[in-house]
Amino acid sequence: MKFGVVLFPGSNCDKDAEYAVNFLGQSCEMLWHKEKNFKGIDCIILPGGFSYGDYLRAGAIARFAPIMERVVEFAQKGGLVMGICNGFQILTEVGLLPGVLIRNKNLRFVCDIVPIRVENTEVPYTYNLKKGDILKLPIAHGEGNYYIDNKGLEELKKNNQIVFSYLDNPNGSVENIAGIVNIKGNVLGMMPHPERGVEKVLGSEDGMKILKSVINWWGEKNGKL
Ligand SMILES: NC(=O)CC[C@H](N)C(=O)O
């Protein structure tokens, strides 16, 4: 399986994503934000960081990067797109996911390893997991407070789009939301960092369960297991 990691000026988890993908035996291509095209990629990762310095609002400028037009097209055709932290912020800004990420409730940057619960196992990203499974993953963000209005929240619930929720809400997110998918389930946005939790020495191996899920789902679908 081939992953593509988009590199924006200010990204800082691109190498972690590449490392995690390679660690799981898969190939990875780095894609510069100015690229207008990419080929042969099975899953795009929009990594964490401070794209364009988080100016205006995190993700608000990155959504206009040349590569994003192609990422949107890829997602609309059913391609797998995973936005992690800043990547999640970019996905809401570009309209692939509903809602918005605003400043943490306490107005402070939070950096920790926190438990999250798996709420939906009908998407590629939780293929190997069970509903109610608890994963411990790193978080590191200043704008991780997921907001959506009541009508939007009802839609999310109705369509089973909430994939991960916090046990101890660290940022004020509505309904403890830590990660959601689009209606089709091919686009995931999550604030915690699975790519930074693939080895015990990093404080968590649980991120591996999410990345392995994608790889196993894709392998099964393409007859490569
Ligand atoms: N690791 C990240 O992607 C966090 C940075 C993010 N832009 C923030 O809200 O602070």
UniProtKB/TrEMBL annotation:
<keyword id="KW-0963">Cytoplasm</keyword>
<dbReference type="GO" id="GO:0005737">
    <property type="term" value="C:cytoplasm"/>
</dbReference>
<keyword id="KW-0067">ATP-binding</keyword>
<feature type="active site">
    <location>
        <position position="193"/>
    </location>
</feature>
<feature type="active site" description="Nucleophile">
    <location>
        <position position="85"/>
    </location>
</feature>
<keyword id="KW-0436">Ligase</keyword>
<dbReference type="GO" id="GO:0005524">
    <property type="term" value="F:ATP binding"/>
</dbReference>
<dbReference type="GO" id="GO:0004359">
    <property type="term" value="F:glutaminase activity"/>
</dbReference>
<dbReference type="InterPro" id="IPR010075">
    <property type="entry name" value="PRibForGlyAmidine_synth_PurQ"/>
</dbReference>
<protein>
    <recommendedName>
        <fullName>Phosphoribosylformylglycinamidine synthase subunit PurQ</fullName>
        <ecNumber>6.3.5.3</ecNumber>
        <ecNumber>3.5.1.2</ecNumber>
    </recommendedName>
</protein>
<keyword id="KW-0547">Nucleotide-binding</keyword>
<comment type="function">
    <text>Part of the phosphoribosylformylglycinamidine synthase complex involved in the purines biosynthetic pathway. Catalyzes the ATP-dependent conversion of formylglycinamide ribonucleotide (FGAR) and glutamine to yield formylglycinamidine ribonucleotide (FGAM) and glutamate. The FGAM synthase complex is composed of three subunits. PurQ produces an ammonia molecule by converting glutamine to glutamate. PurL transfers the ammonia molecule to FGAR to form FGAM in an ATP-dependent manner.</text>
</comment>
<keyword id="KW-0658">Purine biosynthesis</keyword>
<feature type="active site">
    <location>
        <position position="195"/>
    </location>
</feature>
<dbReference type="Pfam" id="PF13507">
    <property type="entry name" value="GATase_5"/>
</dbReference>
<dbReference type="GO" id="GO:0006189">
    <property type="term" value="P:'de novo' IMP biosynthetic process"/>
</dbReference>
<dbReference type="GO" id="GO:0004642">
    <property type="term" value="F:phosphoribosylformylglycinamidine synthase activity"/>
</dbReference>
<dbReference type="InterPro" id="IPR029062">
    <property type="entry name" value="Class_I_gatase-like"/>
</dbReference>
<keyword id="KW-0315">Glutamine amidotransferase</keyword>
<keyword id="KW-0378">Hydrolase</keyword>
<comment type="pathway">
    <text>Purine metabolism; IMP biosynthesis via de novo pathway; 5-amino-1-(5-phospho-D-ribosyl)imidazole from N(2)-formyl-N(1)-(5-phospho-D-ribosyl)glycinamide: step 1/2.</text>
</comment>
<comment type="subunit">
    <text>Part of the FGAM synthase complex composed of 1 PurL, 1 PurQ and 2 PurS subunits.</text>
</comment>
